[in-house]
Design goal:
The protein is mainly α and 119 residues long. The chain is 84% helix and 0% strand. The protein has one domain. The protein is built from three helices and no strands. Homodimer and heterodimers.
Length: 119
């Protein structure tokens, strides 16, 4: 993966996604331990924005990886030199990650809009 810039971007985007998910999980666990409700309008907007940013990063990285994989395998026929199977698997996992992220973004956005309308 290190020879193709798009896959380096994919790894970076996936790392940001993992860090964001870890931070949100830690904050949710902390909220449960201290028995506080952190779903204020401001917090939900921050969560929605964070989900949107990480979702955009993952989607753009997946699209770039798909383009490079198609270019290498179909256009150049360079699968004998490059691990096209690994490239295809990484691209598929990136799209699945984005599909898993999309409902969280939509749910947080819906909650943020609802909270803002109630205020």
């Amino acid at each position: 993966f290190s020879s193709v810039t798009t896959f380096r971007y994919l790894v970076a985007a996936a790392s940001v996604q993992c860090l964001w998910s870890l931070v949100v999980a830690i904050l949710d666990a902390y909220a449960i331990v201290v028995k506080r409700f952190f779903r204020t309008a401001r917090a939900v907007i921050i969560l929605a924005l964070g989900d949107w940013v990480t979702g955009t990063l993952i989607f753009s990285a997946a699209c770039g990886s798909a383009a490079i994989t198609t270019l290498l395998s179909n256009d150049f026929g360079a699968c004998s030199v490059n691990p096209c199977g690994s490239f295809m698997n990484a691209t598929a996992m990136a799209f699945l990650s984005w599909l898993a992220r999309a409902p969280a973004f939509i749910g947080n956005l819906w909650t943020a809009v609802h909270r803002i309308q109630k205020s």
